[in-house]
Amino acid sequence: MNVLYVLVPLALALALGGVAAFRWAVRDGQFDDVETPALRVLLDDEEAPTDGAPSPPPDA
Amino acid sequence: MPAPPPSVPAAPPEGAVSPEAPCAHCGLPVGRRPARTAAGEACCCTGCATVRDVLAASGLGETYDRLRTVAPSARPAGRPQAPEALALAELDRPEFLDGSTRPAEGGRAVDLFVDGVHCAACVWLVERLPYEVDGVSAARLDLPRARLSLTFDPDRVRLGDVARWLARFGYAVRPSRPEAGEASAAERSLLVRMGVAWALAGNIMLVAFALYSGLGAERGGLATAARWFSLALMVPAVGYGAAPFFRRAWASARAAWRARSLRHLHLDTPIALGIAVGAGHSAWATVTGRGEVWFDSVAVLIAALLTARWLQLRSRRLAGEASDRLLALVPRVARRVGPGGAVAVVDLDDVRPGDTVEVPAGEVVPVDGVVTTGASRLDRAALTGEARPEPVDEGAPVEAGTTNLTAPLRVRATAVGEATRVGRLLAWVERGEVRRAPVVLWADRIGGFFVLTVLGLAVLTAGLWLWLDPAQMPAHLVALLVVTCPCALGMATPLALAVASGRAARAGIFVKSDAAVQRLTEVDTVVLDKTGTLTEGRMELAEWEGSGAALDLAAALDAHATHPVAEAIVRARGVGPEPVTDIEAVAGQGVRGRVGGAAVAVGRPDWVEALSAPLPARWRRALAAWAEAGHTPVAVAVDGAPAAVLAVGDRLRAEAADLVAGLQAEGKAVHILSGDDARTVAAVAGRLGVESARGGVSPEAKREAVAALQDAGGVVLMVGDGVNDAAALRQADVGAAVGGGTTAALVAADLFLTRRGVAPLVDALGGAEQAMRTVRRLLALSLGYNAVGAAAAVAGLVTPLVAAAAMPISSLAVVGLALLQPSFAARPAPAGDRPAPPRPDGPSRLAAPPRPAALADASPRPS
């Protein structure tokens, strides 16, 4: 059972790390909008030109 | 209307298509010059047409059928569309740059509302800004809130230019008011609190598992260490996590003490009591080494309660921001004519009585005043309910809040701000907020009763166990107080209502307060406004007889006129490709000219008769009947012979009759109150089968009428859209502003609909009913849990292990049932208020298929 003296502080340290990461994420606004990023991944990156539309012609 | 159902390429190639007809790909209006697909369907832009062609060529045409089953996206459609030019001018004022932007890396940062974004392609397009506009270094769009965070260099680019770039794609940009940031900060801090509480609860449970699986029975060093470890984690859980509950419980206890009434005890009081007793007893047990610990139950309880609070706050904020967004449509600036005749955009507060302001066509008059230069037509519908535009010329009084329709005016201000008629109305609406008694939810009301019951049970338990086994008494007393902690009860109402209002928001129904949902189910009297609520609120082609081809010719001719009647005909029939020549507009009479070789005259029936031949008696009777109903009669002659007659007026919404019939079938009393002419109101009421209808009612009288209905014992739902309804909306038990309503109506209403028309009102009533049913079910469940728990605790059957199992299960059951409730369920799009057949819901943001989204990039307008 002595292993608990190691594991419990370890669990606590992990939790502390999690809380710190969560706190950073919340402050950074990562949870403010949980819908748009899901759509953003659908869009191609700048490096990979989209099918037949390298850039939107503003006056098309 | 010739618009094709989305999946069937049935449109006649190059046939006349109404500018309001939905684009075959995205569902937006196609405009005057629709792009065509290979099959000839009308699209709003070449991008949409290309996408549709590619989909059809790849055999993916069924995409549109799939999209149709998706709930319509909540797309705000506002009548008080803010004047573009004025909004742009507001963005470029130095005061805006100083007051609403903040310094950031790469220049200044600003938050803007972008109206009209609704899908993945919109995200892509808007976030292209940095690549397309020099001086913009970053652009992030928050789609659900339509908020664009922009970083730009004010020396290299003006915000007005950014807005102009976006406007080319059909997005309107509005300055966002800064207040929203505070709500967001409160939500973030609650979210952090919740995360910390769950992390602590998780670790306490980890140790609790060890204690339950045997360690607790030992009295060794390890068991003691485990308890002390839990205690150490419990301190921040109670001190930080549960702090909001203690604060509110303390406040409500003080209020109850001052009022000497248990009724003031909030449900947070027994919750705080349970937490305090559970944590305190466990701490004492840890310190003395005797007795049971309840750390795990209490820690999970705190975390679960915080989660419910956060969900509630989040759903409330979404509704609040939606109304902010609509409010931002109203500019707070005016064009003042300076001494030298130069026009400057100034803050509305800086305009004084006696100043002259310029009001271009399409803008809202900012002040009460007298016309000094110009002649135009005013849409006073928002203020008076009068649907027909009224002509004004020099010397005519105009009111703030009316819309100038046809030609620029200069107006000398006689009253500004709160002194205007609309200002006085709004001031009352805002004061009314305080006067209105807050509806306390049932779950909160029983707080006092709950405390009394628990105290009674505590005395019973103490007495019973003092007599049975005094040594066991404290343990059982603590068990009682912990297990009766109304965690599930406290979560049930807010959670069920938060889930319901979140679902409602997706369906385009924004509810400002939970209380409104409850009162919506108690409504027995419905008061409806006419103009803009039961009717479209603008001139439309209402009826016609005769040749459809003649009507198309009339529309082609009318496309060259600016009269509201002419525009209504063009909207309804669209513009064909025939060339139009020899146009002659006769003021007050009509328009004549040649369309593709035919001589066409459109105008007042007597004028058209004078140009052609007398109308058939049948058409005369029809015209007389239409005039009786408040419409404007129009005749069309082609090549010297009468070819059609039509009536232009404020057309009844298609779903209005269903709404009224549905309400009456449920036994609700329906009344119509309108500021419009009494005859017109009577005609509308007659068609809808409403017996109680009054016309010519002033805004103040509307409020009194609603109050009178309330005095007679009715729970009144007021439905309206205009400034003239605002006071009545505020007075009513529930005020509902319909889509495209005015600012004042939005401010005054308890719920507002962003979809056009009154059909969502039926959804709102049904959804509220189901939400309240869910609430009652959850309350019964959680009260039952508390009753069983209390009985078991009195009998001495509740151990920490039993509590640790029972409490989360009850909370989870409440959460699960709240999430699974059937209220405001997504349904296939109902037929819209537009004359268009099944509206393709367009690529809803919920289900924008990746392929079209990427392809639509070439589109010059949002697809």
TrEMBL record, chain A:
InterPro entries: Cyt_oxidase_maturation_cbb3 (IPR004714)
Protein name in the entry: Cbb3-type cytochrome oxidase assembly protein CcoS
Species per Swiss-Prot/TrEMBL record: Rubrivirga litoralis
Gene name for this UniProt entry: ccoS
TrEMBL record, chain B:
Membrane topology recorded in Swiss-Prot or TrEMBL: Multi-pass membrane protein
Membrane-spanning parts: 196-215, 227-246, 293-311, 446-468, 474-500, 778-795, 801-820
Stretches assigned to the HMA domain: 112-171
Swiss-Prot/TrEMBL keywords: ATP-binding, Cell membrane, Ion transport, Magnesium, Membrane, Metal-binding, Nucleotide-binding, Phosphoprotein, Translocase, Transmembrane, Transmembrane helix, Transport
PANTHER family referenced in this protein's UniProt entry, alphabetically: ATP7, ISOFORM B, CATION-TRANSPORTING P-TYPE ATPASE-RELATED
Organism for this UniProt entry: Rubrivirga litoralis
Listed name of the protein: Heavy metal translocating P-type ATPase metal-binding domain-containing protein
Segment forming the signal sequence: none
InterPro entries: ATPase-cat-bd, ATPase_P-typ_cyto_dom_N, ATPase_P-typ_P_site, ATPase_P-typ_TM_dom_sf, ATPase_P-typ_transduc_dom_A_sf, ATPase_P-type_domA, HAD-like_sf, HAD_sf
Ranges where the Putative metal-binding domain occurs: 23-97
Bias-annotated ranges (Low complexity): 843-863
Domain of life: Bacteria
Annotated SUPFAM superfamilies: Calcium ATPase, transduction domain A, Calcium ATPase, transmembrane domain M, HAD-like, HMA, heavy metal-associated domain
Subcellular location: Cell membrane
Chain ranges of the P-type ATPase A domain: 329-428
Similarity section: Belongs to the cation transport ATPase (P-type) (TC 3.A.3) family. Type IB subfamily.
Region listing for Disordered, in residue ranges: 827-863
